[in-house]
Amino acid sequence: METVAPLQEVIDEIKECGGEAFKMCFQCGLCDSVCPWNRFRDFSMRKLVREATFGLTEIDGEDMWLCTTCGRCPERCPRGVQQIESGVALRRIANEYDVFPATAKPLRTIRGSLISEGNSLSGERGKRADWAQGLSVKPFTGDMEILYFPGCYPSFDPRMKKVARATAEILNKAGVTFGILGEKESCCGESIRKTGAEELFVKLAKENIKTFIDQGVSKILVSSPHCYHTFKNEYPEFMVHFEIVHMSQYLFELIQTGRLEINKEYKKTITYHDPCYLGRHNNIFEEPREVLKSVPGIGFNELFESRLESLCCGGGGGRVWMETDKEQRFGALRLQQALDVGAEELVTCCPYCITMFEDSRITMEIEDKIVIKDITEIIQAVI
């Protein structure tokens, strides 16, 4: 049997890129046992970790790009291997050498769009606030209660613009004084950071931080759990702290304090999907459920895999921008689970989740069997 010597130069580079925790792994395999990829194909996070430990990582391979950063394996790991940070370290090396497998090559276009227009959808920066036309949404000023930061998808994606508009209508109905940044807003940078583009993340973060400070922002309302996560947990790396609120939390607060009244019934049977970056990563499980259960007439059936065990939609870690065979899409399995519990509507509160579910709904040809809704669209219909 051939003896393979550790490649110290590669090991050192992995450590420099943030993969120091690789050495903690003792190959128990718990990460593989919970990874959703293994429902569709052979994939081993344990193998990736082992190869990195010895500096044997194939940076031109596809495996390092499969991780959706869903958080299932770090949650189960007994040794604190930090699989997400360690996997991102490998992707940083691939970025340095500009090496991407075919499925990840769309990331080059995404990076270009983020650099030139500040968003991942190739939308013109000057049109970032077009979603708000006709809604009396004002530019943010320092005397307002809260800044609404819709994010890239609700600003530019046709389906997700409906969520931004629903949010604005709810805030107006509740009498909340809020504003938006419009073309001054840039992508939060969370997902491009998970693809290893660290310098671009830093650029986007610094742009947003400067804007927040210049505009007198202290409290930020977001539609995306990814924006929530990076503003709350990653922007403090730059020595700043803002109060961050996800819309599901804010809805709960508005209803509980009586600022928002629910006046109509919603006679549908629904189920709720926990987004990874809202639930597992940030422990926000109950507020969205309480909001939905406060709606008269609604039927609520819980998914079998929920809360900490929620099945990832497949869009995190930059996967929303990468190519995935339709036979291997997590979203399709999630939609089937929703149908299995008798849901007429699958409700969530994440732009990526909605995007992935809508795509699977079309490829599965079940548009007439289930509807995908954001939590704001439910509340918009009953106030």
The helix tally amounts to 16
Largest sheet: 5 strands, parallel
Distance between the termini: 70 Å
Counting DSSP E segments of at least 2 residues, the number of strands comes to 9
Class by SSE composition = alpha/beta
Shape: globular
Helix content estimate: 40-55%
> Compute the gyration radius: what is it?
21 Å
Biggest sheet: strands side by side, in what order? 1-3-2-4-5
Oligomeric nature of the chains: single chain
Q: What amount of the residues lies in strands?
A: 5-15%
- Low-confidence segments: 1-5
Comma- or semicolon-separated keywords:
383 residues, alpha/beta, five-stranded parallel beta sheet, four-stranded parallel beta sheet, 9 strands, 41% helix, globular
Describe this structure in words.
By secondary structure, the protein is of the alpha/beta class. The chain is 41% helix and 8% strand. It is built from 16 helices and nine strands. The protein has helices at 8-16, 30-34, 45-53, 72-76, 83-97, 106-117, 152-156, 158-173, 190-194, 198-215, 225-234, 247-256, 286-293, 330-340, 351-363, 375-380, and strands at residues 138-139, 146-149, 178-180, 219-222, 243-246, 269-272, 299-300, 345-348, 371-374. The longest helix is centred in the middle third of the chain and has 18 residues, at 198-215. The radius of gyration is 21 Å and the shape is globular.
Fold topology:
Elements: H1 8-16, H2 30-34, H3 45-53, H4 72-76, H5 83-97, H6 106-117, E1 138-139, E2 146-149, H7 152-156, H8 158-173, E3 178-180, H9 190-194, H10 198-215, E4 219-222, H11 225-234, E5 243-246, H12 247-256, E6 269-272, H13 286-293, E7 299-300, H14 330-340, E8 345-348, H15 351-363, E9 371-374, H16 375-380
